[in-house]
Task: structure prediction
Amino acid sequence: MSAVASVARSLTGIGVGRGGAVAPLAFVRPAVAAPVDELPADGDAARLHEAFATVAADLRERATAASGSLAEVLSATALMAADRALISDAVKRVESGTGPATAVAEAVAGFATMFEAAGGYLAERVTDLHSVRDRVIAFLLGAPAPGLVLEGRSVVAARDLSPADTATLDLELVAAIVTELGGPTGHTAIVAGQLGIPCIVRATGVLDVAPGTLVAVDSGAGTLTVDPDDALVAAIEARAAREVMLASDTAPGATKDGHAVPLLANIGSAEDAARATAAHAEGVGLFRTEVLFLDAQEAPTVERQARDYRAAIDALGDRKVVVRTLDAGADKPLAFATQPDEENPALGVRGFRLARTIPEVVDTQLRALGEVSTPSTWVMAPMIATPAEARDFASRARAAGATTVGVMVEVPAAALRAEAILREVDFVSLGTNDLAQYTMATDRLRGELADLLDPWQPAVLDLVRATASAGRTAGKPVGVCGESASDPVMALVLVGLGVTSLSMSPGALPAVRFSVRSHTLAECEAIAAVALGADDAAHARAAAVASMDAAARATLGL
Result:
């Protein structure tokens, strides 16, 4: 055992998913810094333009080769590398006598400060902005870009990991990902969840462990153990075997006594749709459409959108697919629709609120969806806060040809007025990530506030219960498409509260299917009641776990 490892044999962070892995530790190659004695030279402005253009082109190429959340964020990062304001800032600094690499570092620092001050989703993009900086500087200095070439199966560790960093990895060799920074709803966590890779974020001290050290990652417990003993290795291997066993059950989702609970997948592309089908998802509860817009300088036409939507719908056959209209704004700025000078983009013009400023973008998308709509295609809008907004969206969507129309419940106001909103639409879907953020007034970037962002917070569960109750009264579906649906314990609470379908990353389906199938509807209701009766998130989850069927709890390793 190394000297460092002997000091801290076990590190704790925030786990993403349930998986585990045992493998040697490998560190992502750090970025090169601008030389402190750098001097300007003739042609620096042209070299800056070339560097930014090269990095943007490389990111776009990686986005094309990727899919789902990774493709989305790579496309958004490519837009950053092509941002005229950022490039202009760096060029002005060069023209004032600053060296090119230093000019890039200073320009990015200024933009990062603005992003951090904005808070919310936009602040989460600082990691991607720094990734652009590091790649541009590496190009200017003729140095290798940040990244890692893996020679064998490894646990990848980094201070933070941008989507561009992830795209350079041979994912077949990535046993797990561990970072010192980040949060449970940041890009590293989302991408790891999509790919089914065990992940721990905010694991302080991981960079102090010697590279090549054997470590055990338990994302369910949020722990990294240095030089694990044979018992821990065996436990993690046994869990992996159980996960394979659970995946062999491909029956439709239902409780032990036959109460149907459709288990759906979250996707972002036609490729994701094919993977969801292979994972035996019963349909799609969330089709994110932002990827069509992130790399566009102009709003995509009806024809282009219809083509891409049709590809995903065709891949799903006759399965249900819930398409979320453009969730732009905040962390997803559009080149053709950026809102100027928003002090807090997470509370600004995003989602369906774009209808207030660029209604043609909303209506064009709805026309495209109307062209490809089938009886199993449902359409919903994000960021709805009032019954009037729900009525407006429903009117536009139905006029465009949509037959089943719903809205997202992400804002506490929508949950509190869910009964009135359901009079306007055919269904609602709870986005628990944003619902937790807005309920608890918690910036998703602030890892030290992760306990407040926890979907087990009783106040968040109260809003879920209110929405589900409104659905029962109206006789209309209430789904969940936030990350909480992927937790096999939370799934029982959601079913017990009256949620009618659960949508998640395809890799989470087997455990959730098993958990739900191991309990009756009455047992789910009892588990929900004990969670609601807790005073805080930790006690809510602990009470729910303690109330589960003992055999199911053991199989799930809880």
